Amino acid sequence: MIRQIFGFIAKFRDPFTYGTAVVVAAVLYLTASSLDRGQQNDLTSLFLLMTLALAWNLVGGYGGQFSLGHSIFVGVGSYATAVILTLLGWPLIPTMIIAAVMSALIGLLLAYPLLRLRGPYLAVGSLGMAVAAYGWMINWDFTKASQAYAMPKEAQVDFATMYQFATVLLLIAIVSIVALVRSPLGLRLVALRDNELGAASIGVKRVRTLLPVWALSGLLTGAMGAVYAVQQGTLTVDGTFNIQFSLDAAIICVIGGLGTLSGPFIGAIIIYFLRKYSAEYQNYALLIEAVVLVIVVRFFPAGIVGLISKGFRAIVHRRAAAQK
What we know:
The chain is mainly alpha-helical. The protein is built from 15 helices and 2 strands. Helices cover 75% and strands 1% of the residues.
């Protein structure tokens, strides 16, 4: 298992892709001081939403496993950060790393029984686990039921530092997901999604292939939850174990394009700014978002990325035909 999770790191085949990601992230990181606090907070929230969508897309897009349980990883990352800081007083960054690792382990534990299910049964099973986790957490003395829990002073950082945390996390998510998708493990993952029986006939093991994918998805989502907890300053079970995190990730990927790297970015930008600028129309905000989602699903089933690709191919064909 460990070999499968980390073996793909040595499979980097396209230095340009990773170099571009690193350069863009470095520019964003170093320009933090040039942004005002509102811009830093907006970009932090946007980058966290992108990270959440990328992590879900690894399972739901590339793996074809429609999960509604990713809110568990957000909650575990958030509350693990709070518990470790409160009880052990560790430095913030190691605490967030440990919280992410704990979420990865939870991902393995959840995936093992869930992967015996398929299609809508897996979606309902993951939703049931999310509801069960919410029920358990709200009855835990540490969480104080539905009361807000203030993060310790070790978690108090300025907006610029929070923005840099989110930027680095987004870079880690991009590099790790690209590396996995382009590795032999990623090829087996896509083969299972496209034709499970065909993949099984050539020796691809479903559970063995999907377990490390769920672990990485849990790791990234848990890290997102840790940064989210620090950003919020206070935690509630309703806020961190909310099923809305899973729904947001799925909606973003559907709008942007399932199983693509750029889809979660495009979808996150659309959803984030749609919600931001429609917030003043409280009675119609959800309706506007629902209309956008229905239009995309009905007319652009491959998402915005699919629409762009289709348009690009049409232009290429027209130019090729004109040259003949």
